[in-house]
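Structure in, sequence out. Go:
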């Protein structure tokens, strides 16, 4: 079972939070941190696309300083949505410690707070934020690109009718094929982290295509037909297990 994690005693908390996120945000379109508030909607995603995705800051300065500038004119709920997107982007990786994740989420939230940061939320506990495994140094090095991919992917998903979202989110392989089709996701590790946290029974806790390739070669299941297809590789690894 790919849910098994010998390095973490809190993996189940992460998976439970991801399941609730899937229902609450991706299906019901409600906020993760603001109870009952409609948030994961095209209106709020459009603000992030216009102010963040379409206005990348390639100059000097750190990610969070740039992000504050990019979101400076956004409404409070738009910033809350970015905070929640950052939560799911960082849910699987252990590159940031849980307390660092908490501080970072609060920092983003406070760019324009909808209300006091909900630090007592069940989605912000240490076990939930402890992660599942390392995504390597590249994940944080190219964090701005991972976040841009997340915004575009979720915006595309949430623009679909509920029936289509339900179909995608009930079948890991179907979801992977769809996620892999988003152009900005090419080379992005979020594909791997998101597939694992949302579908832990179907995707391995391996957050890079290179490492999956090594496993496939070691077990002699790699073929030319797999090529560089991430969904095909994941299907092959599932078959191996």
């Amino acid at each position: 079972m790919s849910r098994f994690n010998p390095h973490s005693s809190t993996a189940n908390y992460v998976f439970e939070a991801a399941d609730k996120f899937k229902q609450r945000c991706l299906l019901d379109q409600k906020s993760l941190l603001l109870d009952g508030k409609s948030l994961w909607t095209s209106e709020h995603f459009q603000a992030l696309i216009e102010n963040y995705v379409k206005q990348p800051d390639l100059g000097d300065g750190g990610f969070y300083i740039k992000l504050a500038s990019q979101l400076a004119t956004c409404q409070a709920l738009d910033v809350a949505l970015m905070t929640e997107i950052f939560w799911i982007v960082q849910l699987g990786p252990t590159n940031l410690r849980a307390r660092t994740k908490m501080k970072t989420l609060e920092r983003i939230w406070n760019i324009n707070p909808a209300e006091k940061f909900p630090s007592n939320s069940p989605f912000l506990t240490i076990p939930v934020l402890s992660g599942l495994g390392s995504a390597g140094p590249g994940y944080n090095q190219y964090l701005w690109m991972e976040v841009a991919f997340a915004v575009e992917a979720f915006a595309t998903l949430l623009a679909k009718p509920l029936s289509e979202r339900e179909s995608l989110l009930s079948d890991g392989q179907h979801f992977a094929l769809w996620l892999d089709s988003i152009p900005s996701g090419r080379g992005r590790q979020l594909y791997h982290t998101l597939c694992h946290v949302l579908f832990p029974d179907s995707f391995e806790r391996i957050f890079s295509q290179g490492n999956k390739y090594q496993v496939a070669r070691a077990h002699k299941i790699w073929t030319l037909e797999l090529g560089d297809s991430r969904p095909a590789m994941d299907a092959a690894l599932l078959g191996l297990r």
